[in-house]
Task: inverse folding
């Protein structure tokens, strides 16, 4: 069976099925409304206590980014409007708490589900999770605690909520498989954070698996077997041994240079969202931060972060990275990242609309606040500023003028900052790639954002499952644009990085080396594997192959050419 591999690793173990017992909620007439409201409040208090414990555990074991999910859950529980409507339903209709909770929560869930925005849709999932917990408290239904398991298991579920994944005991849970989800779902992100192998989107898996069944799967390929023949088990035991051996061998690369066999040194950096992500960067020996997604500081709150809040976050990252480069991308919202307090307009095509640098150049006060915080933090490390979504010289120049204004303000206030910090742009729009020779004269560096560059070059919405097969990193057009951008920068003696998913793709890394890419920024868990590949290839040999690759007509031929001609270890 096939799904989407979202967290690498080979797993062989017994299934533990998370059974979704169908909860039948009956509408009952009640006499004592106050007693029923107190019963609901008691369930709510118990749920709050549980979620607070989960929040504290996640904050300690995984960090602030993952813990914010449970802050959101607490806010839902404490939402006065929801509580008021449930109480009113109980009193006006004289119904039981379960029925009132069902009716009101379904209204809220439908409202969020109908929104044309991935972030808001996730809020619907949070309400479902909180409602389910409350309902089980009211009905006195006990659940499996994934943090208190007697034996090693492979969890099989329709889906795993943030509450489920937060309780997982890494020593007992070998991996998990779900029927729904994607690479960016909560469960997928948690799996990578915990470094637990996982596959999502395996259709009808819960109907094909029983407790105790033998499960074998590869969390990278997304391939899985239920009660396979002995020869399959043997094959995957060998694969697991190879994987474990490879992991230990990769750990030997900690402290080594990312250098090719012919002496070309590159930089392997990491993408992060918050300072809490630094632990993983340091443990995987990241050589810098190639993309600090500053928008995470602006999310899950009612107003924009203050200058001081941002300054402290940027300063913490700069100090912990000990003078290694830290590239901070200025606010990148819009598209699939909405902030209610910014009152961004509803758009027919948000990915082509009012977003990223376009918002910042319009809302100059918010932009200046962020630039002040970044500049002040630059006194504590090797910070660089990067503008996203640049499509023209005019936008770049506008951004630089505002940056100079902020520098002058700070000088007048006698506040310290690095006056020579580098300023670069993300190349994620084909227009920027095509005029990269001109843009290169006005920046210190480029960072190629392949996630959007593929989307815009191929006219494929990467969230649209119907056409997702057309979203292909091996597309010759993408590779030609990447080559063009690198050549344009190098003619002006500027360095080029890449911060999209392609930067960590083992198949494409050798071609990027051949094209002369200077810096690769990726998920921290991909760094050592990338270093191992780079240390086993010659740039001069890869340069010859890269020239051949860009002249192939199809993505399929590109991929097959790489597989045939490059031995990726």
Result:
């Amino acid at each position: 069976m096939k799904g989407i591999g979202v967290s690498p690793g080979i797993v062989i173990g017994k299934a533990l099925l998370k059974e979704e017992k169908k909860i039948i909620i009956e509408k009952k007439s009640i006499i004592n409304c106050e007693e029923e409201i107190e019963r609901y409040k008691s369930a709510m208090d118990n749920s709050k206590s549980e979620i607070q414990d989960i929040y504290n555990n996640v904050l300690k074991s995984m960090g602030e980014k993952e813990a914010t999910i449970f802050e959101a859950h607490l806010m839902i529980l404490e939402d006065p409007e929801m509580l008021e409507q449930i109480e009113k339903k109980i009193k006006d209709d004289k119904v039981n708490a379960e029925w009132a909770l069902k009716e009101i929560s379904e209204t809220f869930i439908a409202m969020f589900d109908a929104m044309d925005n991935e972030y808001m849709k996730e809020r619907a999932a949070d309400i479902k999770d909180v409602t389910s917990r409350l309902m089980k408290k009211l009905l006195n239904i006990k659940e499996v605690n994934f943090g208190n398991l007697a034996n090693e298991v492979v969890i099989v579920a329709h889906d795993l909520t943030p509450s489920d994944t937060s309780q997982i005991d890494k020593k007992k849970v070998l991996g998990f498989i779900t029927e729904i989800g994607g690479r960016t779902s909560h469960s997928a992100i948690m799996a990578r954070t915990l470094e637990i192998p996982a596959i999502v989107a395996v259709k009808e898996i819960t109907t094909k698996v029983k407790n105790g069944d033998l499960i074998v799967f590869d969390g990278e390929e997304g391939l899985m077997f239920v009660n396979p023949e002995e020869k399959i088990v043997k094959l995957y035991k060998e694969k697991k041994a190879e994987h474990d051996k490879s992991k230990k061998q990769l750990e030997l690369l900690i402290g080594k240079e990312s250098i090719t066999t012919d002496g070309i040194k590159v930089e392997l950096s990491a993408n992060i969202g918050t300072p809490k992500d630094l632990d993983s960067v340091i443990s995987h020996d990241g050589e810098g931060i190639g993309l600090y997604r500053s928008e995470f500081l602006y999310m899950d709150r009612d107003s924009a972060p203050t200058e001081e809040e941002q300054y402290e976050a940027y300063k913490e990252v700069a100090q912990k990275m000990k003078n290694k480069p830290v590239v901070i991308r200025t606010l990148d919202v819009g598209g699939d990242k909405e902030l209610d307090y910014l009152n961004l307009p509803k758009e027919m095509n948000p990915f082509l609309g009012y977003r990223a640098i376009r918002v910042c150049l319009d809302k100059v006060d918010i932009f200046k606040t962020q630039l002040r915080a970044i500049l002040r933090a630059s006194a504590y490390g090797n910070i660089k500023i990067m503008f996203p979504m640049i499509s023209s010289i005019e936008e770049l120049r506008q951004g630089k003028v505002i940056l100079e204004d902020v520098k002058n303000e700070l000088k007048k206030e006698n506040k310290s900052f690095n006056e020579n910090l580098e300023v670069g742009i993300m190349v994620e729009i084909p227009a920027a790639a095509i005029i990269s020779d001109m843009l290169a004269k006005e920046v210190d560096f480029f960072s190629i954002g392949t996630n959007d560059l593929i989307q815009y070059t191929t006219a494929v919405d990467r969230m649209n499952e119907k056409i997702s097969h057309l979203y292909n990193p091996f597309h010759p057009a993408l590779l030609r644009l990447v080559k063009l951008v690198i050549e344009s920068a190098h003619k002006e003696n500027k360095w080029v990085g890449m911060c999209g998913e392609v930067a960590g793709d083992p198949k494409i890394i050798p071609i990027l080396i051949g094209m002369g890419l200077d810096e690769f920024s990726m998920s921290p868990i991909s760094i050592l594997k990338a270093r191992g590949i780079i240390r086993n290839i010659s740039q001069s040999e890869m340069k010859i192959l890269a020239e051949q690759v860009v002249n192939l007509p199809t993505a399929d031929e590109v991929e097959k050419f790489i597989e045939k001609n490059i031995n990726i270890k």
In short: The radius of gyration is 25 Å. The chain has a mean pLDDT of 89.
